[in-house]
Amino acid sequence: MKSNPIQFNPHAGVCYPKGFLASGIAAGIKKNGNRDLSLIVSETPCASAGTFTTNTAKAAPVVFDLELIRKFPIRGIVANSGNANASTGKVGYKNTRLMSEWAHEAATTFDPRLQGGNFLVCSTGRIGVQLPMSKVKSGIKLAAKKLSRDDKVAAEAIMTSDTVFKRNSVEINLGSSIVRIGGIAKGAGMIEPGMSASGKPPALHATMLCFLTTDAIISPPLLQATLNTAVGQSFNRIDVDGDMSTNDTVLLLANGQAGNSPIKKGSREFKLFQQALNELTLSLALMIVKDGEGISRIVTVNVTGAKTSIDAEKAVRAIANSTLAKCAWCGGDPNWGRLSAAIGYSGANYDCSKLSVKYNTVLLVKNGLQIDKNVKKARIVAANSSFIVTCDLGMGKHGATMYTTDLTEKYVEFNKGE
Amino acid sequence: MKSNPIQFNPHAGVCYPKGFLASGIAAGIKKNGNRDLSLIVSETPCASAGTFTTNTAKAAPVVFDLELIRKFPIRGIVANSGNANASTGKVGYKNTRLMSEWAHEAATTFDPRLQGGNFLVCSTGRIGVQLPMSKVKSGIKLAAKKLSRDDKVAAEAIMTSDTVFKRNSVEINLGSSIVRIGGIAKGAGMIEPGMSASGKPPALHATMLCFLTTDAIISPPLLQATLNTAVGQSFNRIDVDGDMSTNDTVLLLANGQAGNSPIKKGSREFKLFQQALNELTLSLALMIVKDGEGISRIVTVNVTGAKTSIDAEKAVRAIANSTLAKCAWCGGDPNWGRLSAAIGYSGANYDCSKLSVKYNTVLLVKNGLQIDKNVKKARIVAANSSFIVTCDLGMGKHGATMYTTDLTEKYVEFNKGE
Question: If you count Cβ atoms within 10 Å of the first and of the last residue's Cβ in chain A, which end, N or C, has fewer?
């Protein structure tokens, strides 16, 4: 029996790969006194890759990172929660640059060997308010003093409406070298990410943030390519409320300390690295969905049998975003009429007389008509805290998947005011 | 002082124009025994016009009406609530045709002079269930016996989740003739209509139904043209939950009994008729918004200063549909960051540093930045049960308006199960 080549370690995140340090402290940006500033630093300079929200109202740190990403070397990431630094104009952009400079200054004060390389910046929280920069400055200094191999507090310090911190990591063998990838993430509302490497469409549709690290040796273009693929099948396929944030960012730093032979495109090692990154990012993305504000059910929506991949995408997103479908799921109601209506207004090629709908393995609709004897069984499936809905359009061979949630009274209550 | 040329009569609907009769009875389609079948009949044959959902999963009656509309003569409308006759296949279509035939049969039994002309059909309610046709048949007979000049019960019999029946009517003077237009409507959820005369896009995004009657003499093409304009500025501009129905329909019958000189395109009479129809349809559309499931606030969203009319449309619909914006309004929170984020993902040309936002007359945001001293004033506006939000994109001269609602816990509770 072959053992799984990808070994997960759920008890570590960005500090699982060699040479990464992290910290998370309370700088006073959040009024409740919780941790709100994270610092991640590599002992050696890093290649970097990133994907960024395609929202045109990009937050200042997104604009800043877009200019910096993939430039070598990157040294680390500084991030705050409690304030998105979005819609904050030129002052906001200047504050982001200051955060980056202060992080570098504080890190080298902590350890003079950490010189060289820039810091990427991320922010999450309320839009339209300027950061309290004196608090941020002393916070960054404190965070640098606290750098360690424990990344739990860094994961905590990027939480906003999250109820749990999110981290995971994986290990693979590339040749004789052990390569690790680790990550921390945040996100619970304003979740329908649509990120691309350039911050420009095409990309589909959280504030969600995810910071990934690896000790692999891999060229910057390949690093970006693997991240694009990974994000495309994970963070860009989740939805809580259909609202794409101004701040969504995934960053991946690679410091090369694993000492593997450089990963070559198309090689067995490349495929294994990609698979590991895919599985890690999907696990982190699903943690975000599971922690969706006030949700009671996680729904995997599959569209199959679409005429084109664009049709599949339109249909799956219309269903995943349908207020009425999400409300029905909240009540454990497998109301397929609302699914059919959503496909019908999605713009996808659709003939409702060809629709099949399954709740897990229960066939509820065939050729557009309800199978009455299966309604009770479908209700039992829809009463679970997680289930799979498959809508086959019967028009072709294309498919798409979204990981979504129900819409609950608690979600509305939570978002009524800040 | 000039008196208003358009006189409203809120105490009448489809029976305000000469020569129309209506009824509404309980056929037993609704399990609670409420009225669920409406009949509207003209004493004389009618020209007709209609707009229909652009959802590709069209209900059987929509498919049927699309084939029949604008063919002369039309005699009336038969409509049921409690069952949408959508996603019901060939059986559903056959049942629609039977409803039309039975309505004609029953009407002529009621009064032999009502011969000639077809009946249009509408249905609203749950999707995917076949109509109980024996109940429908006896219901139609009963409805014909009850035909009268009272249209209140006809308005009641098309209600589903509506809490109040909806009707209104207007009177204008065209030359020496008095011309009247009347209407009844229904709708409270699954509301973001996108109707066109052909049932095909382009048209933007309820089940909402509206039946309009007039005694004007007007040619069928002009009748359709005036209806297109009226629906474009009323029903196609409202939103409760962003879910476009499979059944949305507006029908307009004109029996010519006013005896006016035929209305000519571009004439003063045409303009007055158009204005009256616009005001009537907008009043009925706003009744639907006001009766939105579980809502607590009505929000008029204006986008101004857009580069193109398409940009204005994208931006205004993204705001009106934003789950997070609607939740903020529920809490009386003028959270403009959520509005800016929605514009940012709408696909409209947008530079967030040029955004201005007003809550009624309170300027909350200028050049993309919050005016802190006005936040308290904006909160007072957003605490009202109805207010106007104006987002000026600062990029051009184009604008668009949507009439939308907040999203409340009650909405979710209501839609959790049927």
Answer: N
**A338 touching B (Cβ < 8 Å):** yes
Distances (CA, A) of B63 to A74, B198, B247: 60, 10, 10
What residues of B are in contact with residue A63 (Cβ under 8 Å)? none
Nearest to B333 among A127, A336, A417 (CB): A417
The CA distance from A266 to the nearest CA of chain B, in Å, is 35
Which of A92-96, B142-146, B291-295 has the weakest average pLDDT?
A: B291-295
The set of catalytic residues of A is: 207
Determine the average pLDDT of the residues in B61-89.
94
Range 69-108 of A in CB contact (< 8 A) with B? 84, 86-89
Look at B242 and A194 and tell me if their CB atoms are within 8 Å: no
| Enclosing H/E stretch for B305 | strand B298-306
What are the start-end ranges of the H helices in A219-322? 220-232, 268-290, 309-321
- B residues 244..303 contacting A (CB < 8 A): 244-246
**How confident is the model over B334-354, as a mean pLDDT?**
92
The count of CB pairs under 8 A between chains A and B is 213
Pairing of β A20-25 and β A37-53 = antiparallel
Going from the C-alpha of B121 to that of each of B67, B76, B159, the distances in angstroms are: 11, 9, 15
User: Can you give the pLDDT at residue B254?
Assistant: 97
For B9, other C-beta atoms within 10 Å of its C-beta total 14
Tell me what pLDDT residue B243 has.
77
The token duo for A195 is 């990120």
Over residues B178-188, the pLDDT tens digits come to 999 999 999 87
Distance CA A304, CA A302 (A): 6
Return the axis-axis angle of helices B336-345 and B309-321, rounded to nearest 10°: 130
Q: Which residues of chain A have pLDDT under 50?
A: 202-206, 418
Q: How far is B155 from chain A (nearest CA, A)?
A: 25
Identity of the residue in B58, B331, B417 whose CB atom sits nearest the CB atom of A417: B331
Full DSSP string of A177-195 = EEEEEEEEEE-SSS----E
B window 386-415, beta carbon within 8 A of A: 407-409, 411-415
3-state secondary structure B329-396: HHCCCCCHHHHHHHHHHCCCCCCHHHCEEEECCEEEEECCEECHHHHHHHHHHHCCCEEEEEEECCCC
- Of residues A199 and B398, more confidence is placed in B398
Helix (H) or strand (E) run with residue B170 in it: strand B166-174
Burial class (CB in 10 A: 0-12, 13-18, 19+), A228: middle
Min distance A417 CA to chain B CA atoms (Å): 5
Catalytic residues of B: 207
Contacts of B260 (CB under 8 A, 6+ apart): B174, B175, B177, B179, B216, B217, B269
> How many angstroms separate the CA atoms of B205 and A12, rounded?
47
**Global ipTM:** 0.78
Asked if A323's CB is within 8 angstroms of B323's CB, the reply is: yes
Strand partners, A249: A52, A209
Three-state DSSP state, A341:
helix
Q: Which class for A354: exposed (0-12), middle (13-18), buried (19 or more C-beta within 10 A)?
A: middle
- Residue among A179, A178, A180, A102 at smallest CA distance from A135: A102
Partner-chain residue, chosen from A245, A330, A345, that has the shortest CB–CB distance to B412: A330
